[in-house]
Design brief:
By secondary structure, this protein is α+β, with helices and mostly antiparallel strands. Helices cover 29% and strands 46% of the residues. The protein has one domain: Lipocalin (Beta Barrel).
Length: 138
């Protein structure tokens, strides 16, 4: 009887631990990325690194991004002015975040390369152009 209890207990413990680890990692990623102002640091396009100053010369001044826990996203210029808002959500086990509502009928899929408490790197597809974006916490 003791052996039967051990055999039944092991899968239950493994499933419980697996669910706990999964739940914690999802919460960690949400906590790392949300409710912070992320400032564009650099972009790598076609193997070429460009600083925020170089990008802003051709792309305009919107380079701050705030992803809120309520699913809203705001982009603003370097003074925090001229906000553009939309929505965002995680997908693919929190390895991607999708931004919608910035441009009518268009969604942007961003694949996270690396996420820390202070840095966010992600691949952004703009048409056929793949850009590696690097943001830092303001």
């Amino acid at each position: 009887m003791k052996t039967l209890k051990s055999i039944l207990l092991i899968p239950i413990v493994l499933v419980t631990v697996g669910l706990f680890v999964t739940a914690c990692s999802n919460t960690d990623e949400v906590a790392l990325i949300t409710d912070k102002t992320w400032v564009l640091e650099s972009v790598n396009m076609a193997g070429m690194d460009m600083s925020a100053a170089e990008i802003l010369a051709t792309e305009g001044s919107e380079y701050q991004m705030t992803l809120k826990a309520d699913g809203t996203v705001t982009y603003t210029d370097n003074m925090g002015m001229n906000p553009v808002s939309g929505t965002w959500k995680f997908q693919k086990s929190n390895t991607q975040f999708v931004v919608s509502g910035i441009e009518v009928g268009k969604s942007d899929v961003n694949t996270i390369n690396k996420l820390t408490a202070t840095d966010l790197w992600f691949w952004h597809m703009d048409g056929t152009d793949k850009m590696i974006m690097h943001y830092k916490v303001k």
